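notes to self, project folder thing:

trying the whole complex as one job this time. last attempt i did each chain seperately and stitching them together was a nightmare. two parts in total, labels are on each line so i dont mix them up again. if this works i'll redo the older ones the same way
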Amino acid sequence: MNQTDRIGRVLSPVVTPFNDKLEPDAGRLANHCRWLLANDVGLAVFGTNSEANSLSTGEKIGLLGALVDAGLPPERMMPGTGCCALPDSVELTRAAVGFGCMGVLMLPPFYYKNVSDDGLYRNYAEIIERVGDDRLRIYLYHIPPVAQVPVSLTLIERLLKDYPGIVAGIKDSSGDWNNTRAMLEQFQPHGFDVFAGSETFLLDTVRHGGAGCISATANVNPAAIADLARTWRDEGADEKQAALNAVRGAFEGYVMIPGLKAAIAHFGGDEDWIRVRPPLVSLTPAQRQQLIAGLEDKGFDMPGLQGA
Amino acid sequence: MNQTDRIGRVLSPVVTPFNDKLEPDAGRLANHCRWLLANDVGLAVFGTNSEANSLSTGEKIGLLGALVDAGLPPERMMPGTGCCALPDSVELTRAAVGFGCMGVLMLPPFYYKNVSDDGLYRNYAEIIERVGDDRLRIYLYHIPPVAQVPVSLTLIERLLKDYPGIVAGIKDSSGDWNNTRAMLEQFQPHGFDVFAGSETFLLDTVRHGGAGCISATANVNPAAIADLARTWRDEGADEKQAALNAVRGAFEGYVMIPGLKAAIAHFGGDEDWIRVRPPLVSLTPAQRQQLIAGLEDKGFDMPGLQGA
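result (full assembly):
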């Protein structure tokens, strides 16, 4: 059984709830994680859509411990652990491995721009060497629209050569299918698992041998996404993909993170979910109403969700 | 005496030395700070050129304490304290105020892109409220080429209105003189100190009523930059500006941070200075030789510098 078979083909960058002091709310996070798992979606906590970079390293380690203490299975977790500062990345990655997390999703350090592949290689290599644990499985995180620091094909090649097994895959959030396809062709055959960065590319990705997807909207539409990931070889797959795209389309025109939280607040009946940390802002009441109306028009629901 | 008169017109984002384990070297940092002060340059520790975002919050607080313990004057310090995560920005800013630092230089949270001015306002407002100390003086940090998250004129206007006195100025590293001039015209008359992000704009900035500059190359050429900031009304100022530009020009074509460290290593006779943290890489031996030759051709020196 390879890594992907263990963790599943669909993961969600789990949104992070905050209390009225804007502190992370571990109880609500655990509940949301349970609902995702019940819908066959794995836990990419501390992703972009988790506001991970708005959390301190200490907060992230605290939340991870709270999830494990709450009985959530670390073998279904792929926490984001790539920070700007090497010691933060090392500390968080070491904690994730210590908790038994299946893998970690690792951004490149993203403050300095136009850095060399040598510098990025050195970042990943230092983390791997300092963590120094054979259980470590790194999924690289390529998200140039946000990080503005890409993970190039040549960097992947070099890391895979020097750290086979440990460098286990990638999430490609470039939105550029040509790039995803190049990764699928060059690296997936060597056991390097390529996850699309959104379910929009799920069917294309698995048809080209890829692992699946790690997608923001898996926070709200997990069952249908996971279903397509299981049944993509069957008839009707293209129709299922079109249905996924329609739900995702309802979130277009809104900032994704407050949009996801507005949907969870509404369908889970828990107003506390709407909070975001700065620099994000919640949707306005009018935006929320419009978003929910658009979702309900499509017959969308989040069955079984209990927000609080 | 206003803030700028106290801290001086020229500050350096002090480069951070690392030991052979890539840990920050507080002793060498203190020595470099002493040399800068002896050349009339203030200490903008934890700036972009300090590799501040490659340091953890704990490392930064530790270094700040070590500098104060080593007798360096906090009233000449403007540490960078703006992080992606609100609790990090609050913790670091609170520490800086506690140590008696004259001000702090504050990046916006820089992971999420295309965020609203409302979200950025909320970030700064939350920090100010949570730190809750009248001694706090915030210098905003506008560096769109790196942070990719701008500090707009409308954001400044709103912050200045709601937090007069606390919002004390800005470093404009846009490299766009029209933007600097707009800030000088709109905000400097209200006691909001505009610092150019490089000495290239020093003379233009002070001639338009600005405070001075906070510049990478003040790490290596402090005396001449501080001299122009003092004597800009005198004859010969344009020639002095041209001479500053020539020295800065010698660093063009090299990545700035390893370039500065290579100069300090050479002119201070201390090879340990060349280290950088990932994702940066040191200059190659050939690059170092070429950089130093270019500087020596201009008769450049760093008198009084002792690296170790």
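what i see at first glance: The beta strands of chain A are 10-12, 42-43, 104-106, 138-142, 167-172, 193-196, 212-214.
need to look closer tmrw
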